[in-house]
Amino acid sequence: MADNYITNPGAGGATFAGDEDGLAVQWPLIKLAWGQLDTFNILADAAGKRMPVNLAEVNVTVPVSGPLTDVQIRATPVPVSANQGTAAAVAGAWPILLTDGTRTATVKAASTASVAADLALVVTSSPNGLLTVSTNNSSTASLGISGVFTGTTDTPDSFTQVQISVFSDQNGTLAAQFSIDNANWDESVSFPYVSANGGTNFECQIRARFFRIVYTNGVIAQTLFRLKTLFRPAAPSGDSVALRDDIPANAHAQLTRSLMFGPTAGGGSTYAQGTVKAASTAALATDPALVVAISPNGTVSSKTDLAPASPTTAAVGVASGSAVAANASRKGLHLRNTSTSGQRLSLSMNGAAVLDSGITLYPQDIFEMNEYDFDLGVINAIASAAAASLAVQEFA
Fold this sequence. Notes:
Distance between the termini: 145 Å
Strand content: 35-45%
CATH architecture of the largest domain: Sandwich
Strand order of the largest sheet: 7-8-9-10
Structural class: mainly beta
CATH topology of the largest domain: Jelly Rolls
CATH class of the largest domain: Mainly Beta
Number of domains: 4
Shape: elongated
Number of helices: 2
Helix content: under 10%
Largest sheet: 4 strands, mixed
Number of strands: 33
């Protein structure tokens, strides 16, 4: 059967477009149009001819290719754009300019100028997120006699600690300097470098915004010098400066300064500040001190080496008498009954001695004066029989 068909067959009529499907059935062909009543727009892939669709109602995603404008993205455009600036010195690297349409800011690694003079977004990156090397304050150039290396100013705003490593074949002095205005370096932390100790690390807290290193060589020219400065975002606990007395040479310790206070002599309710010192012979009232002595093996002792007087022997009779004279310099006293005929001795540090009263020594007994019965005055003695003897060893 042929395509197309005629309405009102036999009497004749209008011919309609159709398509015969091979089974003697005609399928009408329809041309689509859209529009309000009494109007129509033939559907076509052309401006004003496409079927209008409200995407918000049908909730579909329409793929878009090509760059989007601010208007396409949001109802109220934001006047911010990023432009590629002048080519940098390093091939393939370009600076980034941020602008709001009126002002332009440059993304850069550092800026020391005021915002009014240098509108910049300052960013910092660290290779491992922990330490950043300061190339401005690191060097390997050897210094001559009394030569000085002065680093270039750094602004370690996002860090809290500086770590400096030094290795040289000559002695020198390292100074970490800080400034609040990049002009007056009012605060400086100095560390002596001793070449005999080999490579040494020095660490200190960041004290102001601007920082630099000043290293001064000693009286002999260097032939080897390595100085490296690192910034830390957070200070580790403990390390500060190497301590080399009775501590392994590579160990570090945190330096602290403390004051020692204790009750005054006699157990009073008041407290006094004491000074740690090697020796003191003054009274506590005038010199409240903690006297210490360092023994050769590194242990600490509160003992003081006393000076012994020449040993003597005192003859003691059956009447009370002076056996040991008063001594204002006395620091210790040992007494021993060396009588050979069984005599016993009685001692007194307050007046006349009375036999079998107070401190009594039988033959070969010893009396040692200690902190609880210490006395500087005269010591009297009495014996149970004549010809008694008392060995005396005094310390000053």
